[in-house]
Amino acid sequence: MLTIGELASYAGVTVRAVRHYHAKGLLPEPERDHSGYRRYGADAVVELIRIRMLAEAGVPLARVRELLRAGEEEFAAAVADIDRRLAAEIRERQRHRARIARLTSGDGLALPPEVVGFLERLRALGVDERIVRAERDGWIPLAARFPERVGEWIVRKQEQ
User: Fold this and answer.
1) What does the DSSP assignment read for 12-68?
2) Where are the domains of the chain?
3) How many Cβ atoms from other residues are within 10 Å of residue 76's Cβ?
4) What is the mean pLDDT of residues 118-128?
5) Whole-angstrom Cα distance, residue 117 to residue 107?
6) I need a surface site. Which of 78, 114, 130, 138 has the fewest CB within 10 A?
7) For the chain, how far is it from start to end, CA to CA, in angstroms?
8) Shortest CA distance to 8 belongs to which of 47, 59, 66?
9) H or E stretch including 114?
10) Higher-scoring residue by pLDDT: 46, 103
11) Cβ–Cβ < 8 Å for 36, 66
12) Does the structural domain 1-69 have CATH classification 1.10.1660.10?
């Protein structure tokens, strides 16, 4: 049998969290022993870990209570739904990260990769940066207005 501190430590939560879960009706409060201490068994450890994991996954405590009372199939379906939601959130955050990374990409922020490559080749050839910037400034409205034609135009430009 475990004390509340041992239970909390084992499950990776604070004693305060255990008491909070008692107050919310998520974790049954055990009887106290002859010395006045709560003593928890293995079932409490399993339940507390389930509560913690659901809460960490962003499940509201009211929903956690429902899930803990649900049957195996309903619980499994809910967990699968939570997993799908988390996977969608991860994909969205990865898209945000890619957008943020583009902020340091210089010309790549406003231009397609083939134009950026062209401008980089100009720089590598030693073309004056003012000329490269003028090229860039011309490509931005063209790429914005006619994105489908950029590939064709960049080929012609490289042939010059």
Assistant:
1) TS-HHHHHHHHHTTSSPPPPB-TTS-B-B-HHHHHHHHHHHHHHHTT--HHHHHHHH
2) 1-69, 71-104, 106-159
3) 11
4) 94
5) 10
6) 130
7) 83
8) 47
9) helix 113-124
10) 46
11) no
12) yes
